[in-house]
Amino acid sequence: MTEIELEKYSSAFTLADMEIFVFPELMYSLLLANIMSPTVWKWRDEACFKKLENKDPYKKLMRLRQFIMDEFEFNLDLETWGLTDKNAEIKRFEKFLPAEEISKSNALFGYEGDSYYYDVDIRKHFGLDKYNSDIIPYWKTETIEAMNAFRHKPGYRGGAGECVSLSTLYAAAAVIVCGIPLDDIYMVLTPLHSQNFIDINDGVITNNRRLVTKAMWFNGTELSNKAQRALRNEQITIVAHSSGLVHCLYKDATIDKNIYDSFSGKLANFLKTELLTDMMVNFLRANIDYRKHFQFCRYCHSNIQFIKAEDLFKYEHLKPVKVADCTHKQLLEEVFDGEFSNEPFPNRIRCDQFKEYMAKKKPDINTEAGRNELTKVLSDYIPDAEKFVNELYDFLHIEPKLPLGEKNYTPSEPIKISPDMSREQIIDYLRSIRDKNITADLAFYAYRDMESCDWRPFVKSASERSPISIENTKDKTIEQCYQWLKDMPNESIYDNKRLAQPDEVANYARGDGIEKSFTLANILHKREPDKEITIRIDKDSVVVEAGKRFEFESAKGFSKEIKISGEEYEIR
């Protein structure tokens, strides 16, 4: 491998957010690694999915949402995978992208695209204010095995992962468990978030542990408003698909241009909706201050009774009923009679009359003329009607900031995986295209398949980017570090000939003898960088030699000899 290739391939083991930004192929590689994982395939045997075997993919996807919410927590603990230095990382990546370009588009290096975060101070928002301004977290993206292993970490009730981990997990499970074609899944990354657009029905967007349909997207709830934040405010940095990817900074795009254009249109349609009465009510749900200009009514013994909008909305918090959907009548039945008036409240818009107006006039809020007409109608009730209409339009219409500009579309070998393929067939297929598709090749590194991968990237990542194992042992002698590792269960979080990195061993307090040996070697290397360290793996025996001899047991079945000296690695 060249130096540049070694940097990229070693990043497939670390999978830090900043590495995915610089090496965007890694995002889809992690998705493929999760698709290869036996863990996700076992979900098919869960009773909740067995019952849905003959149901359509959408029903399965909705059930998957509850499964993931039950099994995984959203984790944004900055110190889970340790800390690093911003200047050191910029120096590391400057051979790939200029520092100023990275700073414009990556949240850790000064990105300022979303004013919301800068209004609250982004470093304070993410808990970085307790460090100096150059300290940034290793936001590492977890494989499904690492996500599951959080259950071994104190303070976690089950699995966990950050947004990139959850988005890749959702995409893999959508294919394996729900039978959704890989071609219908688009991975969408912004500087501060990662989500998927799944082209099913009117579209579905994954958001951390949740799914958001188009109806949910515009319902005006706090959860939906948070789900919108990234696409409403941020530049989309990467779109990844089975046909390839496009990156906001790189000129070369490997995604099929026709597919990208089609996706752009579908996403745009998902992010806008018509102005109907229900949408006006959803807007009021999201904008409390405007409720004082509206009222609702009900028929009671042939008489019309009225209630202030703000009074009706408070009943939504008491029961699972809404002001503007099929449960509207149920909500009115919950209202205390004393809150109704037999006379309309002055200077308030009656929502029933507004509905009649909309049906008759149909003003198009997407045009300036339509907005002007609506402003004129509402100006008798709302002091700054123009501001109201503009905010209503923004609520109903989000313009995604997709990677644009002149791109060199050079299609790569597409990933052709169908839902009817078995796990073994998928692995065999991906193996067959490794020599002509770098994403497929990197997938085996992200999958940790050390039987078929070059070990140099693994050693580089283990020796250079494992700060947790260093931090957790800073007060231990080497003999105490050795005993700490020996006392751990001798079990890997990865099956077969797949290996965990030192920080996974440290975080989850378990590991095979090979994984423990690399953890000890990392500690030794950090304390004495110039000392030569040898790891000898002979089937079930692993020996670390660095002045002293340390022995471990392995069930992985490898035969290797690794020498680490300074920044040089020799593997036999």
Topology summary:
Layout: H1 3-14, H2 17-22, H3 25-36, H4 38-42, H5 47-50, H6 57-71, E1 72-74, E2 83-85, H7 86-93, H8 99-105, H9 115-119, H10 122-125, E3 135-137, H11 144-148, E4 159-161, H12 163-176, E5 185-190, E6 193-198, E7 204-207, E8 210-213, H13 214-217, H14 222-233, E9 238-241, E10 244-247, E11 252-253, H15 257-270, H16 277-286, E12 294-300, E13 303-308, H17 309-313, H18 328-334, E14 349-350, H19 351-361, H20 368-378, H21 385-396, E15 408-409, H22 423-432, H23 438-446, H24 455-464, H25 467-471, H26 478-487, H27 502-508, H28 513-527, E16 533-545, E17 549-565, E18 568-571
Parallel strand pairs: 1-4, 11-15, 12-14
Antiparallel strand pairs: 2-3, 5-6, 5-9, 6-7, 7-8, 9-10, 12-13, 16-17, 17-18
Helix pairs in contact: 1-23, 1-24, 3-12, 3-23, 20-21, 24-28, 26-28, 27-28
Commentary on this structure:
With 572 residues, the chain is an alpha+beta fold. It has three domains: 3-272 and 401-445, no CATH class; 277-396, no CATH class; 451-571, no CATH class. The chain is 44% helix and 16% strand. The protein has 28 helices and 18 strands. The strands form six sheets. The protein has a six-stranded antiparallel beta sheet with strand order 8-7-6-5-9-10, with helices on both faces. It has a three-stranded mixed beta sheet with strand order 13-12-14. Strand 9 and strand 10 form a beta hairpin. Helix 26 (478-487) packs antiparallel against helix 28. The longest helix is centred in the first third of the chain and has 15 residues, at 57-71. The chain is elongated. The mean pLDDT is 92.
